[in-house]
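[Automated response] Your request has been received and processed.

Submitted sequence:
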Amino acid sequence: ESDTASEISFQFNKHKKTPSIGSHSSDMASVSSVSGSVLSVYSGDFGSVDAQGTVEFALDYDEKNREFQVHVSQCKDLAVVDEKKGRSDPYVKTYLLPDKARMGKRKTSVKKRTVNPIYNEVLRYKIEKMVLLIQKLNLSVWHNDPLGRNSFLGEIEIDLASWDWSNRKLNWYPLKPRSLSAVNGVDHRGVMNLSIKYVPPGSLGKMCPKNPPSGEVHIWVKDVKDLLQLRPSGVDSFVKCYVLPDTSKKSYQKTRVIKRDTNPIFNHTIVYDGFHTEDLKDACVELTVWDHEKLTNHFLGGIRLGLGTGLSYGISVDWMDSTQEEVAFWQEMMLAANEWVEGLLPLRSL
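Generated structure:
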């Protein structure tokens, strides 16, 4: 059924009394703080004021340092958020789309009590030029609220593939209402084709030589389609797997790297033993897809298979956040002991 198989033991008991597990989510811990969903581009109260005014900025790419630079100069005639006090406290925020989870956001300082803020700041991204050219720059202006209900003041979106890189001058651009393009389709990161199976303890009968003394979860990663293409030649991808809350080396497994292919076929099976039926309510299988590079691997998307209750062994955790599709897939496996359950699940930013 597969050309590669991994089998590892998984011990849950040692995690049940560990309150710190909520802060650990394998390699995703570094990403989850940046972005939870596409709508985080527009996190805050974006319906309170109409977009108006202009923003002055310039774009440049430093070939020597391989750095994309956004020179944010100033804004003029921004909308007033607090009409009683006649004030706005604006700042500028940038994302590179669609891969905002990987790149994160950059933002300027906050200028208080002004609708004509002057920044003269440079927002920097370490990124290869050919990767940059398949991105869009989303630059937005926000009012900073002490209680966190930041108000959207306007934005501009630039397709960097068609940008004139000889133009390094500061230019004025009108701020526009929020773009639906940044909400629709940005988080399409591909689809994973996989099968899972749960083998309960002793369920295969005493006469079976492979009858497991403890339960087993089998994960068969077949292929992934429509991955983000980070370079003209495609993407060099592999899949990581953890069974949370365990983020130790014992839990960690990965497939081989498939090079230059946005539709990689992995055909890799992983078997985790040490499962009791009640553990299925508190565990979560995290599968993440990565682009392999020498210095650092880039996150492409992932799925989390579990009940999505937000709790693991009575402790609140941020990684127990399975979508409805992922929950239904996990539940189907729990109800169909010893049977493969097949599914096509969309990758998402975790």
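Summary generated for your ticket: The longest strand covers residues 215-225. The longest helix spans residues 324-335.
If you did not submit this request, please reply to this message.
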